[in-house]
Every structure is written in C-alpha cells, then in structure tokens.
From TrEMBL, chain B:
This is ABC transporter ATP-binding protein. It comes from Candidatus Brachybacterium intestinipullorum. PROSITE patterns: ABC_TRANSPORTER_1, ABC_TRANSPORTER_2. CDD domains: ABC_NrtD_SsuB_transporters (cd03293). InterPro entries: AAA+_ATPase, ABC_transporter-like_ATP-bd, ABC_transporter-like_CS, ABC_transporter_ATP-bind, P-loop_NTPase. Keywords: ATP-binding, Nucleotide-binding, Transport. It comes from the Bacteria. Residues 22-251 form the ABC transporter domain. It holds the Pfam family ABC_tran.
Amino acid sequence: MTQLTRDSTTSSTDASAGALARRSPAPRAESGVLRLWRSSWRALAFLAVAAVAWWLVTARGWVQPYILPSPGETFGNLVEYTPYFLQHTWITTYETVLGFLIAVVLGELVAILMVRSKNLELTIYPIILVAQVIPKIAIAPLFVVWLGFGMGPKITVAVLMAFFPIVISGLAGLRSVDPEILDLAKTMGASKIKTFAKIQFPASLPQLLSGMKVAATLAVTGAVVGEFVGGNEGLGYVILRANGNMDTATLFAALLIMSAIGIVLFAIIQLAENLLIPWHASRRSDGSSAVVAQA
Amino acid sequence: MSTGTLSPGTHETTTSTPAVSVRDASVTFSSRRNTVTALSNANLEVTQGEFISIVGPSGCGKSTLLKVVSGLSSYSSGEVEINGSPIDGPRPDIGYVFQRPALLEWRNVRQNIMLQAEMRGLDMQAANARCDELIEMVGLQDFEKSLPHELSGGMQQRVAVCRALLHDPAILLMDEPLGALDALTREKMNVELNRIWRATGTTVLFVTHSVAEAVYLANRVVIMSPRPGRIVEIQEVDLPAEREYGATMADPEFNRVANRVRDLLGARGTQE
C-alpha cells in the first residue's frame, strides 16, 4: 500500500500536465448549425458573389442567353420540369452510387491481396496501372457493345473511374502501419485476421477515406461519360439532348444537379470521417498533436 | 485495492527452472555482399524473477538478443529456452515493450491495454479486473478514456508497460523503453519500474543505453560489445531489491558496478 501512495505523488505532475493538454483545447459546446456556419460561410459568400455576377452578366445582356442562360431561366427550368429532372437524376445517382460502392469493395479487396502477397502485387499492379492509363471515355463505347444500352456500361465506367484511387489509397493505408505494432501483435500471438481487423484496417482508414473522397467525385464523371456514349436516360443523356437543341438552360440545370450529386457524396464521406476517425490528426481541431511531438 | 494478482510468485513454473536460458546462441544476417554477426556465442541464464539490464553501444546485439528471446527473430545456432522449453516463433508468455509506446491512436488507454486480452482471446472479465489494477498501479485512473495523443510521453510509455503486463507474462522484455523520454520523466519512470517489478515479481530483460539506469534497476548487468555483437561480462549488483533514487546512487556498490560498466564500455572506445 505504501508503494501506491508513493506512486500517486510521483505521477501527479505528469497527470496535471496531461489534464492541461486536454482542457485547453476543449471546444465550448456549440450547436451543429453554428459550427457548420463557422466552417462554410466563406465558401457560401463566394458562391453568393458568383451568383450575383452570373445574374448581372445575363441581366445586362452582355452575354447572349443561348451562350449563358440567366440564373432565373436555369432555376425556372429546374422547377418547371422537376419530374423530368428527378427521373434522370435518380438514374445517374443510382449508377454513381452503385459504381462507387462496387469500386470501394473491389479496390479494398485488391489492396488487401497486394499487401498480403508480393507476387500478387507484382502481377496486379502493372495491370491496374495500364488500365488506369487508358482513357475511360475511349473504352466506354466498347462497354456499350458488350453490355448493351442499359445501366451496365454506365456503372462499369463509374467503377473503373473510382477504382484506382481506392486501390492506391487502400494500399498506402495498409502499408502505413507502424512495423513495431505488427511485431507487438506477433508477441500477442494474434491471428492474421485479428491483426487485420484490429490493427491494419483501422490504421488504413484515414488514407482509404481520402481516396474515397476522390473516387466519389470520379464516379459521377464515370456515370455521366457512360450516359454520353449510349442510352436514353440519365443526366448525361439530358445534357446531350439539351446540347442538340441549343437548350443551355436545361444544360446548366443538369450541370448544377451533377455537381450537387458529387458534393453530397463527398459530404457523406466527410461525415463518415468524423465518425470513424475522430482520433486522426487531420480531424483534430485542437492542435494537441503537439503533445505527441514532445514524446 | 487488492494486490492479490500483483504479488510475486504468480507464475506456475518452479523457481529451479531458469526463466531464460541462452546457450552459445549466435545470430547472423547474410546479405549478398557480406555476413554480419549480430550476436556471437551468447551465454546467459536468468533466474525466475530476476531483473537483468543489458547495456552496450549501438550494434552490440542487445536488441537482437531481446528479439531472439521474444521469438520475433530466429537464431542461427545455439539454444534458447524460456522456462525450459525451446523457442520456435513468437512466444505467448512474454510481454514486450518497445522503444516507442506503439499505441493504437484510435484506442483509449483502457482499450489499448485490453488489446492484449482481445488478441490472445483471454477471459474479458478477468482481464478487465487486471486492467483496473494495472491502471491504478501506474496512476492513470483519471486517463482511462484518454486517447494516446492526449497523453504525455511518460504516460504513453506507462500504458505500453500495462499492456505488456496484462496477461501476467512470465518474462517482460523491454527494448530501450525510456530512450525517447526527457531526463526528468525518465528518472520517475525508473523509480516506477523498480516498484512495478517488485510488485509483480516478473522476470525482466531491460535493454538501455544508460549505465546509471542499467545499474539502478538490475540484479545483474549484462555488458555487450559490437562487431561481432557479444556478451563481454555480467556484473552482479549487490543491492536490495527496493531502490531509492538518491540513496541507491550514492551507494558504493552502485558506483563500483557503474564504474566497472563504464570501464568496459569505454575501454573499447566505441561508447556513444
């Protein structure tokens, strides 16, 4: 028992230092709305300025309407043909999300295989690289030949676009594990599956998630490229048709929706980051990584 | 607090079997150009509950010796046994503390310690109770829920020690665990390690660069020398198990051993 009391005195200075490190950066309880406003007002302000400029340029008649439709015309178009846009937006969103999810699963699986076996890595990596170098838009017509005019080729192009960043970031993430921690797992007699589930996979999440952000936006592009090449539905088809009719208002409306899909997907992954890796340095707003640097 | 499981003699092996027995062990690494002998004909017998410090300059094979005993590295020749059974592959009955804390960033203090239990598939209830004791022993009660980045270096290393002790290992292997700490924290950790060792009765192999630290903590100090890595001498430290920072260091015995160690290291002109 005497040992314990001595311990509490020896560790007290350390303890207070730690408490200080924790207390100082603790943010005051702030409502979610306020926090969102604090982080996004700059972007919103810029958007507002851009919208005003857009309106001004068109209202003054400096640019012909068939080149740049006015904001009123664009949004009016959106409202007027809401069911039409909704139908095609749904198709494109479906292709994008499905393609993205398939790419995440496939990409992570391939990354795991490559980390597992050097032979497999040396076999697969060059193929993936070659596949990445081929312009997706150039092979999209081929998928139409192979898979028809349905959603197949669109989803395939979306998968191909999103796959590469997932593999690369997944691989980098799995490689980023501290070798000492892997040695530690060995001294614990841990199975490969446990080591993967409890150490390698969680450690790879920060990199995997940033790869997923890139992949999400590319998946939208992939789906739209697929729609350009063949088919009669989706926002890519809407754009092609509006282009043929010189209907720039519809074209702009479709563009706005496509950006929105990409942004929403991006935001969902950002949210996942907040939930999954709050411990990571990139998620910490308090600069407490300084404590680690000290150690 | 109950000190039941922390009391000495919890291990089932008889005291007559050496905890660690290294006989004529050699480790060589071959590359295309040359062969490096990391450890040459090492002989060491560690009795149950003993604290052994291993000192020597870089490249003398002290970390290699520890890796061999842990089963992380294989040895080229000789025999290495733990509690009478030869080593083949990583051992379940050891605890390992690295130079860096090697904590999982996303796990809090308790979860990091409990990793040991999860990986080994130990009984969670018993492990949790043991975890409570260890956390209290190292004075981290108020930080159970803290993440590693919220802790100081000394606190992180204490978590690593708790993790290594959770499964009540027969042998605790420590590879320069205090090397990255500042001098003041290091002194405090020395006092604490001595206390933990007395409280648990675990056999400890402790690698360090610091002569004072080695002598302060150990029953015996193993002095090693590089090229090829080998054991030069083993010095007995004839001091009581409980060490007092100031008093121990003023003791003539402490100074005798420390000076002898310094002579041996200095005489070879390779001390850092």
